[in-house]
Amino acid sequence: MSITDTSPDFTTRPSSSQEWIERARQVAAVLATDAVQRDRAGRTPHAEVQLLKDAGLVTLLGPEEHGGAGETWSTAYRVTREVARGDGSIGQLLGYHYLWAWAARLVATPEQIEEVERLYTAGNLFFGGAVNPRDNDLVITDEGEELVFRGRKSFSTGSKVSDLTVLEGVLKGTDQHVFAIVPSTQDGIVFGDDWDNLGQRLTESGSVEIRDVRVPWSAAAGYVDKQFRPLTYNTLNLPTIQLVFANFYLGIAQGALAAATAYTRERTRPWPYGGDNKDTASEEFYVLDTYGDLQSKLWAAEALVDRAVEEIEPLLHGDREAVTPEQRGQVAVRIAAAKQRIIDTGLEIATRVFEVTGARATANSVGLDIYWRNLRTHSLHDPVAYKRVEVGRYALLGELPEPTWYT
C-alpha cells in the first residue's frame, strides 16, 4: 500500500494559516508511519511528493489568482518544520521547493515573476535545483538570443521528483551568475542517481550533467538587455534558505524527542539496581532530568528560530526596492544564531535520547538513528563555525554579515 493510499481526505481546502499548519501535521503523520522503512529502501520519493501536491502544500506560497494559497513565509517555514517532524528528507525537499518557487521574486523582473508563479502554481509543479555555488564547472555561453548551459553540478536536490529545475552557472568570460528555470524532464538534463549518503536519503540530491540546455535570454532571471539590475533584496536568497535549514532541523529534533518520549513511556524498563527502584521508566529521576533538559533546550532553540522568522517575513513580503543592507545584515545575523543553536541542540537531542530509551532502543527496527543521521548529514552543508563567527563579529565588533553565497 502506498503513501497516497493512506493519506487523509484533502478535498477541503484550508482557509487560514493555522489550518495549513494543521494540514502539514496530517501529512507528517502519514510520513512518520513508515519513514524508517522508506529511508532504508531508498526509493525515489515520487509518492511522497505527490502527497505534498495532493495536500496543497506545493502551492502554499503561490498567488491566489492562479490557484495558490497566497500564504506568507511564516506559514511556509512552519509547514516545512511540521513535515520534517514526520520525515526529514521530505521536509528538506519541501523547504527547498519554497525557496526555488520564490527565487523569481528574489531576483527576476516583474514579468518573469508573473510567468513563473502562474506556471508552477496553476500546474501544481514541484521545484528541484542544480544550484551549488562551490561548483564552477557549469558554464553558460551567450549565443545571441539564447544562453546555453553546459557542465556539471555535484548536487541537485529534488532531481527526479521535480517538474522544474533551477539552473545556476557563470556566464563564460565574466563573473556574472545566471539563474534560469527549465523543465526537469529533457534530454539535456541527466541526473546521476548517485545520492548515497548517511542521512536525508530521500532528497534525491545527487549529481547532474547539463548538456546543451538552451534558454532564451528573456528567461535569465533579473536580466534586461543582457544586464542584471541588482537590488539588496536579491541577496535575501541566502538568509531565506538558511532559515529553511533551521526550520527543518528543528522539525527533525522535535520528531526525535517525540519518538523517544513515546518509546520511553511504552517500552523502556526501569533500572532495578539503583537502590530507589521505580515501577516504570517514566518515574526514573535520571530519565525525567534528561528529558527536562532536552525539552528546555529545544524550546529555547524554537523561540530563536521563530524570532528570526518574524524578522525576515516583512522583508520578504515588503517593497523589494526598500530593503537596506543594514536590514539584510540584521536578519542574517539572527538567522546565523538560530541555525547554530538548533544544530547543536538537535544533535544533542538525537544522541542523548538513547540514554533514556535504553539498549533495546538501538534495534534497527526502532529506527531512532534516523534523526541523528538526517541532522548530521545536512548540518554539514556549510561549516557552522562560520555562523558562530558571524554572530561573534556582530557581538564583539558590531559588524553585520556581508552577502556571500553562504551568508
From TrEMBL:
<dbReference type="Pfam" id="PF08028">
    <property type="entry name" value="Acyl-CoA_dh_2"/>
</dbReference>
<dbReference type="InterPro" id="IPR046373">
    <property type="entry name" value="Acyl-CoA_Oxase/DH_mid-dom_sf"/>
</dbReference>
<dbReference type="InterPro" id="IPR013107">
    <property type="entry name" value="Acyl-CoA_DH_C"/>
</dbReference>
<dbReference type="InterPro" id="IPR036250">
    <property type="entry name" value="AcylCo_DH-like_C"/>
</dbReference>
<protein>
    <submittedName>
        <fullName>Acyl-CoA dehydrogenase family protein</fullName>
    </submittedName>
</protein>
<feature type="domain" description="Acyl-CoA dehydrogenase/oxidase N-terminal">
    <location>
        <begin position="22"/>
        <end position="115"/>
    </location>
</feature>
<dbReference type="InterPro" id="IPR009100">
    <property type="entry name" value="AcylCoA_DH/oxidase_NM_dom_sf"/>
</dbReference>
<dbReference type="Pfam" id="PF02771">
    <property type="entry name" value="Acyl-CoA_dh_N"/>
</dbReference>
<keyword id="KW-0560">Oxidoreductase</keyword>
<dbReference type="InterPro" id="IPR013786">
    <property type="entry name" value="AcylCoA_DH/ox_N"/>
</dbReference>
<dbReference type="InterPro" id="IPR037069">
    <property type="entry name" value="AcylCoA_DH/ox_N_sf"/>
</dbReference>
<feature type="domain" description="Acyl-CoA dehydrogenase C-terminal">
    <location>
        <begin position="243"/>
        <end position="381"/>
    </location>
</feature>
